Amino acid sequence: MRKVIISGEKRAEIIQVPTPRPKEDWVLVKVEVIPMCTEYKAFRGGGRHEFLGHEAAGEVVEVAQPGRVKVGDRVVVMPLFPCGTCPLCLAGDYIHCERHIDVAAFTGSPEGYETYAEYVLKPDWLCVPIPEGVSYRHAGMACCGLGPTFNACETMNVNAFDTVLVTGLGPVGLGGVINATYRGARVIGVDANAYRAELAQRLGAERVVDPSATDAREQIMALTGGIGVDKAVDCSGMAAAQRLCIDAARRRGHVSFVGESGELTVAVSDDFIRKGLTVHGVWHYNLAHTPRMMRLIQESGDKLDRMITHEFPLDRVQEALELQVTGQCGKVILTP
To answer: pTM of whole model > 0.90?
Structure first.
């Protein structure tokens, strides 16, 4: 099969590797859509990276034994390779599993666990069926396009009475705009990228504040009558944006951190105790919420078409990664 590697600074190549084979309850999925995520950072940074990608939607083409899915099923491939047997996995919170499977040791081959490829292996319980009438390109948004902020909205119980702040309007943050507005909330975005600010407003954000403005917090407070936002979710992974979420949230408000980052300085007393703020670390959603995710996708097709701004065949992955580096895009997908 063909797969993508990063061979150096801003250099992507397609190479041939053996097609993996399923084993036990694992299945082989022919990848139809690859939603691109943070792989562009490795592309920009240089070095050699041979295993790329964690999002995919496609068709089951081979199974080793009868199980939860069968050949011909259209599925979304959930991220990572959790054990499937620990209390977290059994409760649906597989994303927090601490006993991940060594794919190469289990299958006997290093290939098959990356999604920037024509085929991917996955335990059958992590292959979510795609409802009839839902396209692969829309279904693929059930991973990082909508998933992290879907969980944030679930965790914070976002509803029509809320004003929600979304900082960082890359693909994950744009998904946050869709998730929050779907639930009826008013959304204020934060991003300095004019392209993404305009796109966020097309997806339903009422206003987008430039974080480089010295009065960014004051603008947000003015938009909320001086009270602050009810809920905030950071998708940027930037300490300054995370700080803004804390500072712009109202007393007894909620903040979710989705963007991966390093250190953030907080004052436990002023930020949490006296303010009564609740802070959540959010990654991906519980499997039990998958039907709600699929309903969101079914009812948000027009917005998903706007969020997915570019589509490239696998052969043009170099061009796709170069575009991502510029930031002048929403969600980008590859089609093997």
So the answer is: yes
Domains in the chain: how many in total? 2
Residue 125 lies inside a defined structural domain of this protein? yes
3-class SS of residue 227? coil
At 203, which CATH number? Answer: 3.40.50.720
β-pairing, 11-16 vs 2-8, is antiparallel
- 293's CB contacts (< 8 A; 6+ apart) are 142, 146, 147, 150, 285
Give 306's contacts (C-beta < 8 A, 6+ positions apart). Answer: 199, 202, 203, 330
Q: Which residues contact 233 (CB under 8 A, 6 or more apart)?
A: 149, 152, 153, 156, 164, 165, 166, 167, 176, 180, 245, 255, 256, 257, 258, 282
pLDDT, one tens digit per residue, over 117-148 is: 999 999 999 999 999 999 999 999 999 999 99
The identity of residue 323, as a single letter, is L
Tell me, yes or no, whether 319 and 247 share the same domain.
no
Beta strand extents in the chain (DSSP E only):
2-8, 11-16, 26-35, 56-63, 74-77, 119-123, 127-129, 163-167, 186-190, 207-209, 229-234, 249-257, 278-281, 308-313, 331-335
My answer on whether 120 and 151 are in the same domain is no
Domain that holds residue 213: 147-281
What is the distance between the alpha carbons of residues 153 and 315, in angstroms, rounded to a whole number?
Answer: 36
Whether residue 192 contacts residue 168, with contact meaning beta carbons closer than 8 Å, is answered with: no
Q: Are residues 155 and 223 in the same domain?
A: yes
Angstrom distance (rounded) from CA 230 to CA 227: 9
> Residue 272 carries which side chain, given as an amino acid letter?
F
* % of the chain beyond a pLDDT of 70: 100
Stretch 247-274: mean pLDDT, rounded? 95
172 and 231 inside one domain:
yes
Q: What does the alpha-carbon distance between residue 230 and residue 2 come to, in Å, rounded to a whole number?
A: 47
Q: Both tokens of residue 212?
A: 């480089």
Q: Are residues 152 and 252 in the same domain?
A: yes
pLDDT per residue as tens digits for the range 219-256: 999 999 999 999 999 999 999 999 999 999 999 999 99
68 vs 51: CA distance, rounded Å: 27
